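Deliverable D4.2, example record:
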Amino acid sequence: MESVITTKSKIQISELAKEITAIAIRWLCMALFFYTAHAKTVDHDRFLKGLARVHLISGFALFLSYAVPIVEFLVALLLLVPNTAKTGLYCFIAVMSAFTIYIASALIWEPTLPCHCGGAIEKLSWGQHIWFNLAFILIAITGVWLINFNKTFKLQKS
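Output generated by the structure prediction step:
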């Protein structure tokens, strides 16, 4: 006699709820990058001066002052379009990881830390910045998982 053991998750979430959650995550990440890119663009001179005060990157301050908001806008646009959303989430994770590594490096090697993130996010302490970034990275990873799960589920149904 053969035994078959099946396990069911204790938490059952509908496919629609998973899809809506993935969309909400995309929009949340998109809103964050549109917001910070806009803040850096509107007050570009202040952003540039803040970058120039960080010894680790001062030599690249001018380039970064343009590149960072452009990258944020481009990633936000990838997140906006459903066909590029998964790529957008991967890019979001990469950029947020780079920002987190930059913050951790600055905490280790910089004597003073100017914040030039843009908008209300500048009110966070450096430790809070790291936790904020890590939370968004985890949220984006969840979004990728949900997109992958939904695609796998749809393929199995057909």
